[in-house]
């Protein structure tokens, strides 16, 4: 039997009870990782943990507010003490934000919400886990961004700036942590769907814009004039595809990859 991708690895996922974070946690556990998932609500964490346990995986849950730097650092310290270190970390915490409002109608708070929300939590979680990585135990930090970092479209100011910021953070951090034997890789999916249907976060994010256009979220994403038609593959990435990619990037098989962004936009961006 071939070795699993993440055998003997310890992985920490913040936002591990969400649709995407949960899918990645399940995939990491299936691939052999001991998974520690954290979030602000116990019920979703428990649901993910039940799935992992039922499949024979190893998982522990913790209630952690990723905006609380002291709490995140305490959690990372506890994981490292329990597992002897941290091998893989991912911040999958989502921040609801405006998409579609032009500058003239956009408030400063709405503009700053994704910038502060995404980058603040990314900084806090990354700083907490990086202390427990590297050396003779290689580390991997994965980040998540969106095509808004490179798409020139109206109404995406806060979204685009936050996405570009996460990618700049990824590249700069990779240069800083490489000497410590820590890789940093970004994953850039388009709007993510769950098989043939929108994922829960994607649906919530696009509901207002879809309603204003007289469309369902599904039509806006995958209809005749939906986002999927703007990709080369004429479809959007699935949650499962993002999770499988994350597992590969976190594994030693991707050991020469760092400081780059994995483009999962289905061809919405070509770079």
Automatic annotation (TrEMBL):
GO terms for molecular function: oxidoreductase activity. Keywords: Oxidoreductase. It holds the Pfam family adh_short_C2. InterPro entries: NAD(P)-bd_dom_sf (IPR036291), SDR_fam (IPR002347). It comes from the Bacteria. Belongs to the short-chain dehydrogenases/reductases (SDR) family. This is SDR family oxidoreductase. The lineage of its organism: Bacteria, Bacillati, Actinomycetota, Actinomycetes, Kitasatosporales.
């Amino acid at each position: 039997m071939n070795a699993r991708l993440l055998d003997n690895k310890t992985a920490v996922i913040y936002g591990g009870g969400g649709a995407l974070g949960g899918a990645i946690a399940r995939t990491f556990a299936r691939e052999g990782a001991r998974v520690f998932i954290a979030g602000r609500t116990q019920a979703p964490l428990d649901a993910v943990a039940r799935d992992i346990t039922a499949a024979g995986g190893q998982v522990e849950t913790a209630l952690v507010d990723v905006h609380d730097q002291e709490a995140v650092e305490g959690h990372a310290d506890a994981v490292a003490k329990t597992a002897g270190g941290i091998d893989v970390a991912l911040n999958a915490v989502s921040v609801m934000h405006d998409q579609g409002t032009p500058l003239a109608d956009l408030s400063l708070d709405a503009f700053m919400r994704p910038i502060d929300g995404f980058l603040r939590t990314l900084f806090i979680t990354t700083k907490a886990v990086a202390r427990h990585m590297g050396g003779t135990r290689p580390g991997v930090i994965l980040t998540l961004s969106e095509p808004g970092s490179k798409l020139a479209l109206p109404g995406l100011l806060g979204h685009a700036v936050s996405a570009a910021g996460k990618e700049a953070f990824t590249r700069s951090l990779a240069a800083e942590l490489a000497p410590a034997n820590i890789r940093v890789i970004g994953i850039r999916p388009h709007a993510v769907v769950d098989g043939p249907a929108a994922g829960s976060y994607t649906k919530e994010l696009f509901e207002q814009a879809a309603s204003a256009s007289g469309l369902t979220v599904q039509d806006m994403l995958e209809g005749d004039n939906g986002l999927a038609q703007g990709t080369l593959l004429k479809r959007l990435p699935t949650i499962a595809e993002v999770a499988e990619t994350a597992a590969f990037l976190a594994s030693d098989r991707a050991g020469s990859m760092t400081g780059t962004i994995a483009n999962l936009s289905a061809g919405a961006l070509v770079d």
